[in-house]
Write the structure tokens for this entry.
Amino acid sequence: MAEELLRIDDLHTSFFLEDSVVRAVEGVTFSVRRGEALGLVGESGCGKSVTALSMLRLVQEPGRVLRGRVTFSGRDLLTLPESAMRRVRGGEIAMIFQEPKAALNPVFTIEFQIQEMLRVHTALSKADRRRRTVELLDKVGIAEPAQRMKDYPHQLSGGQAQRVMTAMALSCRPKLLVADEPTTALDVTVQARIMRLFRQLQEEIEFAFVLITHDIALCAQAADRIAVMYAGVIVEIAATRELIRNPLHPYTRGLLDSLPGRTARRELRSIPGTVPDPAAKPPGCFFSSRCPLAEARCRDELPEMREIAPDHWVRCVRV
Amino acid sequence: MTQQTLKKGRLRKLRHHPLAMISLWVLAALYMSALFAGFLAPYHFDHEDRAASYAPPTKIRMIDEEGHLRWPFIYKTSFTFDEYYNRVYVEDTTIRYPVRLLVRGDQYRLFGVFPSRIHLFGVEGDARLYLWGADSRGRDLFSRVLYGGQISLSIGLVGVAISLVIGLTVGGISGYFGGRTDTLLMRVSEILMVIPGFYLMLALRSVFSYSLNSVQMYFMIVFIMSFIGWPGIARVVRGMAISLREREFVLAARTLGVPRMKIIFRHILPHTFSYVVVAASISVPGYILGESALSLLGLGIQDPYASWGNLLSEAMAVSQIRFHPWVLIPGVFIFLTVMAYNLLGDGLRDVYDPKRQVVRR
């Protein structure tokens, strides 16, 4: 097993609103190994993005990381001084977002924006930065990079913009790339191409990859391991093949059942109900309010994570 | 569409605002006249002639005593007293003094650098051409208005530039950082806004020594005006920064480790450009009027230097306006400039800021 690059332990992040406290992340624990691709799957509002932002210490008021430990390359990111943290962001951990066009600053050329990264994180000369920019754009599959880098974000298509964002994120050779719904805003053919690009880049310039998505099928194609999140906790985590073939948590099964199959025509099933209001989660197992298998003891307390098979952890008392 | 065509498109839109376009040309003409004041003015601003105190505007004639058509010329004037001991100027029609182009006259420095004696027009010999009359010490008002424009017109621009720098920095920091920084900076700006501007101006003036040389005086006025001007800009920029900081590219920049000050200056402030252009144009008149007010009270630019404000101080007595109405001419220029900036600002606002979110100072 490859060595651990990032380990998140018992992370809690809450948002303190005027009349309520939203516990967005309640004890998330997982690790990312060097060079692997981990998928973080879950419905909207289950705390995937907040987990990523907490890890980078970018949660804004009124949100606060309450406790937990984020160990990255042997350092605890939650206690690192802000100046060192800034070097980690972009330098060692880079992140890309759902709306690539919104994530690029409309008033600057893409060349300027990629070079800004290099200016902030490296000591390269102007000529080297230029060369690097062309090289990066070429690597992410932008045709005629030397000309296209003079473009402004509004001149790019969504797919191109996501490629540019990726180039920016990878410009300083981070050890970890976090992609938050990187293809959700793109159409399906572009989505496939972007996912292929990530794979290919990961082989070329080794980095660990965390793919945050609500699309478990996408995850199954792209990730080595999958962590399933629900209502602020991880409910199941296993290698992709294992998780798809042998889903143990009822929520994971629900997610997989809601996918159209490739061969057998069968009725798609959906999970009844909706994600609980994060300010008013059910007692005990958070999934108990929607779980087809729920029984009395499920409502007593939140089950612990248990290793059912090697490297296959699940948070359910019924398994 | 490229950025260039966008910009061109905006300028083209301004063409649909005839008042704004006229204002633009008026301002261009005013600034050019201030820039070339030494050349355009027939005399140095301090060239006095006590024998010509309040000499009325010289009549430029083209027909001589015999009724012949001549190249434009003037007669020399001298004064006698009437029964109330007021000066009465009479023309001496014996000698004609032709108005010549490109004549040699008082030494000046073009753009403050190149020494020259050539003036666009003037008369040679001992007669004096007072296009718009003379002031109490017999100095040519036309020349002084041109020189005065150098101070009055530039003070607006420099003042606004400094206010913008302070306002953008404070507003950007306040809005982006939020919390205690924001509270502190905004309370300071509110204190400045709460004190009536003119009292604050006088109070600040009293901080400085009464006798300053002209350069110090100039920068003192700029300082005072900017000190009063920045809070208004800072407050609006803060509001914009608060909304801009939620934009995804700011989060992306933070995620990628861009330092905070860089985020403020590179990613947030450029987006306030359209507001800033309009605000700048609309607030320039405030600075010009402020300078005029200080100078009018004798607290600003001092004689012999000319600014439109201290030129107007000659017009403070009703008797002056009655007997020498030409001393009001500098006021016409203040009016023209203020009007032009406001109309231009309105035009720019329509072009840059269709939502009309401008806060006037």
Chain B has 13 helices and four strands. Residues 49-139 of chain B form one domain. The radius of gyration of chain B is 25 Å.
